[in-house]
Amino acid sequence: MRFLHTSDWHLGRSFHRVSMLGAQRTFLDHLVATARTEQVDAVIVAGDVYDRAVPPLAAIELYDGVLHALADLGVPTVLTSGNHDSARRLGVGAGLMGRAGVHLRTDPATCHHPVLLPDPPHGDVAVYGLPYLEPALVRAEFDAERADHTAVLGAAMDRVRADLATRPDGTRAVVAAHAFVTGAAPCESERDITAGGVEAVPAEVFDGVHYVALGHLHGCQSINDRVRYSGSPLAYSFSEQHHRKSMWLVDLDPQGAVGARRLDTPVPRPLARLRGRLDDLLADPALEPHTGSWVEATLTDPHRPHEPMAALAQRFPHVLALAFEPDREAEDPLATYARRLRGRTDRQIAEDFVAHVRGTTPDRAERGVLRDAFDAVRADAVRTERD
Predict the structure, then answer these.
(1) At what angle do helices 21-37 and 57-73 cross, to 10 degrees?
(2) Considering only CA atoms, which of 193, 190, 293 is closest in space to residue 239?
(3) Are 291 and 260 in contact (CB under 8 A)?
């Protein structure tokens, strides 16, 4: 059995106000061409098909086009919803589309109902699609002990393993899931999923299946030989400048052993993060290779230069982002404050504020109240976005 593992298309997303629709169309054409030339038996998309719950019409047209193209090839496609998608909207028509070989898995209650892909003479491969599971919203469905990611994903996988136990001996199992697995490396362009407690789940949650096709993190990476992220096919933040964008071409042998090969995806334009004083960035000959890149410039001039964006655009026509981090003395109050905030979560900042105002840090019960308050706000935002 051979299949393509991809995720995090984020159709409709822009890159610093630059439309990515053309680049997304190029990627989807590449995906279809790869499915044809590599003679794959299926395509698995592990969530975040769209960038937001109500995508623009142009993004829907891209989605519709690629599904028709894959169906015309006779290649079954399994798609799950991610934390950016509206599961209910993405899942509309799932029953009818399944008859055409497009299998949408967006309902947590049916995550243990696999798509059975025939692989004669070796038997079926059962593909279980787990949509993104928001702990606060699905805890009751899974009767989970806690409203956190490990508890709800563990309960969902218990259902998967129970179903797999009813299948004929030798049935190979693949799980598509949208989650943050312990040991993986995030970047700046993924939406925070900390609502409901600690977001990271151990890879052991997925024990009992032969391959786990993960989505959510935008960097392609392997947790182990059978648990992998495909990453996003395109860069969506400058933090991804060193990513090699790709898909996994996975071969599952009759015994369930995994062979995986990375296939590069088209790059619309390289990324560059430049830092320094304006005059140095404009004059440094070593920066010449970046004149055709999308550029994020961080200026370190002690004082803000006059019209720096216009000056940078003369040398770097595709400069998109500009930040100021002036070189300051160590004792400068502004520099000290920025260092205190860097890398801290909203909850940590709130706890620091309580300590500053009251003179004592929050105790365990108070930290629990703050955690629950932030989780409630995040969960409410998710509900509002998806409705």
Answers:
(1) 10
(2) 190
(3) no
More confident residue, 144 or 357: 144
What token pair was written down for 67? 């599904």
Residue 18's domain spans which residues?
2-264
Give 148's contacts (C-beta < 8 A, 6+ positions apart): 135, 196, 197, 198
Provide the 10 A C-beta neighbour count for residue 77: 23
Among candidate residues 216, 239, 264, the one where a domain is terminated: 264
How far apart CA 203 and CA 154 sit, in angstroms, is: 10
Give the 3-state secondary structure of residue 264.
strand
Q: Which two structure tokens, joined as six digits, stand for 212?
A: 């786990």
Averaged pLDDT, 19-44: 98
Phi and psi of 267, rounded to 5°?
Answer: -105, 115
pTM of the model as a whole = 0.85
Average pLDDT for the chain: 91
Q: What is the CATH number of the domain that holds 12?
A: 3.60.21.10
User: Between the CA atoms of 38, 40, 46 and 48, what dihedral angle is there, to the nearest 10 degrees?
Assistant: 60
CB distance 172 to 1 below 8 Å: yes
